[in-house]
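The instructor's notes for this session suggest beginning with a concrete chain rather than abstract definitions. Hand out the sequence below and ask the class to guess, before any prediction is shown, which regions might be ordered.
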Amino acid sequence: MDINDLMKQAQQMQGKMAEMQEQAANSEVIGESGAGMVKVVMTGRHDVRKVTLDPSLMQEDKEFLEDLLAAAVNDAVRKVEAESKDVMSKMAGGLNLPAGFKMPF
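After discussion, reveal the predicted structure:
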């Protein structure tokens, strides 16, 4: 592989990255905790769009609710990261990059 091929692949990667970033803005994951009693809808850019609490939780103490909410947000973040990593792997796999090549993002 010569430098010209590598530059072409870098340009292809830039275009695909722009597409992926647009998809991330529109994709959503659902993080959960408390066996689904707390749900957080989060975009690929880590924006929380919605929080849903089971009505039975309204009788719990504040600290318990805070813990469940934090756990649901953390679950959503892990799902966004896993989805992002999966998309990046698929994208990089089609570019035939040299072994050990590290992407700058």
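Then share the key points. The mean pLDDT is 86. The chain is about 55% helix and 15% strand.
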